[in-house]
Amino acid sequence: MTSADHIRDTVRRYVETVGTGTAADVVALYREDATVEDPVGSEVRVGHAAITEFYAAIESLDTSTELLSIRVAGNSAAFNFRVITRFGEQTFTLEPIDVMTFDEDGRITSMRAFWSQDDMVVS
Amino acid sequence: MTSADHIRDTVRRYVETVGTGTAADVVALYREDATVEDPVGSEVRVGHAAITEFYAAIESLDTSTELLSIRVAGNSAAFNFRVITRFGEQTFTLEPIDVMTFDEDGRITSMRAFWSQDDMVVS
C-alpha cells in the first residue's frame, strides 16, 4: 500500500497541475486504466485518452487552485479544494470535494468529484 | 431521485444528532440495509443492528459537532464536519470528510468516513 504522505503529495500535485499545468501533466498522475466521474452522477470516463479529453477542455482557461483540506484513509483520499476561473470580467469560484483511490505506486486509479452548478459562485 | 435540498437537510440532521442525539436517533436516518465504513478501509457494517452498535459506542461521550461544508451531486453528498469530544481535561478535535448515498426517500443508504488517527488534534 502506498503511504499517506505519498497520497497527500500526489493530491497536492494534482491540485497544482489542475491550476497551472497542461492536460498531459494532470493525466500523468493517473494510471492508464483510471476512471474519472466529474461531477458524480455523470458519465464515467475510462483511461488516459478519455481523461485527457476532459482536462483539455479546461487547460486553456485562466484558473488558480488551492487545496483547502485533505483526509487520507487506507488507499483513498477525500479533499476539498478551490478552483477560481477568470473569464472576461467574471470570476467563477467552485470548491468541489473530490474522492480519489490510489495504486501501490501512488498513481490515481479513480477520481469522483462532488459538486453541482448550485455551488458555483459568480462574481 | 431525492432532491438536493432533502439531502442537505438529512446531512444537517445527521451532524446534529451525532453531536446531541442517541444512537437510535442517528440510526433512524439510515435505511434498514444501509452500510457504514468508518474509517474508509475498516470493516463495513451492514444493517441497523451493526450500525446501532457503532453509534452506541460514541453516544455517551460529551461531543459537539458542526457542519463545515457540503457538496451534493446526484443522489450522493460529500461533507466536511467537525467533531469535538471532551474527555476529562482533554479535548479531541476531528474533521472527517464523509461521503453518503441516499434513496428516493432521502434515507442514508451508505456512509464512508475519510479520516485517520493523524487527523486527530488533542488539546
From TrEMBL, chains A, B:
<protein>
    <submittedName>
        <fullName>Steroid delta-isomerase</fullName>
    </submittedName>
</protein>
<dbReference type="InterPro" id="IPR032710">
    <property type="entry name" value="NTF2-like_dom_sf"/>
</dbReference>
<dbReference type="InterPro" id="IPR037401">
    <property type="entry name" value="SnoaL-like"/>
</dbReference>
<feature type="domain" description="SnoaL-like">
    <location>
        <begin position="11"/>
        <end position="110"/>
    </location>
</feature>
<dbReference type="Pfam" id="PF12680">
    <property type="entry name" value="SnoaL_2"/>
</dbReference>
